[in-house]
Specification:
The structure holds two protein chains of two kinds.
Chain A (H helix, E strand, L loop, with lengths): L1 H36 L4 H16 L2 H20 L7 H27 L2 H9 L4 H31 L11 H11 L3 H30 L5
Helix pairs in contact in A: 1-4, 1-7, 2-4, 3-4, 4-6, 5-6, 6-8, 7-8
Chain B lengths: L1 H7 L12 E10 L2 E11 L4 E5 L6 H8 L7 E6 L2 E2 L2 E2 L9 E2 L2 H9 L1 E4 L11 H11 L5 H14 L15 H13 L5 E5 L7 H15 L4 E5 L3 H7 L2 E6 L2 E7 H6 L4 H14 L1
Parallel strand pairs in B: 3-10, 3-11, 8-9, 9-10
Antiparallel strand pairs in B: 1-2, 1-4, 4-5, 6-7, 11-12
Helix pairs in contact in B: 4-5, 4-6, 5-6, 6-7
Classes of the chains: A mainly alpha, B alpha/beta.
Amino acid sequence: MDGFVLQFVEGLKTTVLLALISGALGMVVGLLAAAAKLSRFAPLRVVVGAYTTIVRGVPELLIILLIYFGGTVAISSFFGRYVEINAFSAGVLALTIVFGAYTAEIFRGAVLSISRGQIEAARSLGLHPWQTWLLIILPLMMRIALPALGNQWFSLIKETSLISIVGLTDIMRVAAVGAGSMRAPLTFYLAASALYLFLTSLALVVFNLLERHFAVRGH
Amino acid sequence: MRAAMASSLPESQIAPAAGGVQARGIEKRLGNIEVLRGVNLDVAAGEILAILGSSGSGKSTFLRCVNLLTLPDQGDIWVHGEHLRLRPVSEDDSAPRILDHDQVRRVRASIGMVFQSFNLWPHMTALENVSAGPVLVNRLTRKAAAELGRRYLAKVGLSDKAGSYPRHLSGGQQQRVAIARALAMEPKLLLFDEPTSALDPELVGEVLRVMTALAGEGRTMMIVTHEVAFAREVSSRAAFMHQGRIEEEGSSREFFSNPASPGLRRFLAAHDERHS
C-alpha cells in the first residue's frame, strides 16, 4: 500500500500539471477564438465557429482517442516509421482544444456584455486597439466571465481523468491499477475521489479570490 | 501645407479654413434609414457651436462622424485643417473604411468627447479614468499624468473624489469626471453628445456650470443638446438639424431671436411652451 501512496503523489502531480498546462493554453486559445468570432473578417468567424461547434458537439473521450491514435498514425506516416506520441502531450493537446472551444463561448459572451460606450470612450481618446483590449475589455470581461470560467476549470480537472485511457499515469490510472492489483476497488476509488475533490476545492478557493479581486471595488 | 493639399486634391476637397472642423456632404445610412443626407457644417477655432434638433434628426450621428466613432458613408471632414483619409461606401464593399488608422488615432487624441451615458470605466477610480489617456496615448509618466489628472478633477470641482470608483459617484459627478477625462488630453476641440440628457433634473446644473466655465476659456466646442436656454447662453453659433440636414444655422443671436425656418420656429416655440 505504501508504494501506492507514492504513486498517488506522482499521479496527483501529473493531473495537476496536465490541468494547469492545458487550462492555460486553452484560455489563450479561447481568447483568440473569441476575438476571431467577434472580428469583422467573415471567413475567420466561420472557421472558428466550426471549431467551437464541432468540438463542443463531440465527446471529450473521442477527441482524446482521435488525437492519440490519429496523431500516432499521422506522425508515423510522416516519418515513415512507427512513432507513438506520448500520452501526456496528446492529453495536453486534446484538453487544450476542448477547453479553448468552451472558453471561447464564455469569453465571447462576456465581451458582448461590456457596454459599447466604455469601448467607444477608449477609442475617442485615441487608444490603440491592443491598449483597449488589454486595459479596458479584458478586465471588464474577466469579471463577467469568472463564474462560468470557474465551472469550466472544475470540468477540466475532472476531464483530465479521461487521459488515463491512453495510458497516462494520473490519479485515475493509479487508482484503477491499484484497485485491480490489490483487489480493493472501494479504497482506491475513494482515495482518487478525495484527491479530485481536493483539487476542485482548491480551484474553488482560487476562483473566489479572483472574483473578489475583479469585482467592482469598494462595495 | 495648404499648397500641398491644393495641388493633390480636387477643388471641392480643399479645406475652407485651417483650424476647427469642416464637414462637407456628410451622408450616413444606418440600416434603411438615411440618418444624414448631405451635412455641411463649419466650426472655426475658438467657436462654440450648439447643434439642436429633435430626436432622430441626426445630430448625434453627425457629431460622432467628427471623431469617426461613426464612419460617414460619403463626404469629407477636416479637423484642424487635416483631411481625414476615408474610403467612402462603395458597391463592391458596403462598409466605409478608415484608410489611415494612425491619423485617426492622432486626430481622436486631439478631440475630447463627452458622452450622454458618461462611459467611465467602472474598474478604475476617477483619477485613473482621467489619467489613463495621458499615460497611454500622450506617453506621460504616471506621476505627471496623476498630477495632471488631479488638476482637471479640481477644475470640475471633484478633488475629493479622486479615489472614488464611478459607481460611488452621482450621475452629475460621473459626467464631470468624464469631462475631466476629456480635458486631461488637452484637446483642441471638445465634443459634447447630449451631456445632460441622462441626468436627473437636479444634477443638470452642476454639469452645465462646468461647461459654461469651459466656454469662457475660448475653447472650440461642438455641443449637441436639448438644453435650449443653455445653448443660447454659451454658444456663439447654432445649427438646427432636421431629417438628416442642417435646416438653419447662424450666429446664436440671430438663430435664437429671429429664426428663419418654420421648423426651427416650431422647435423653439415648443421649447418655450414647455418651460414657461
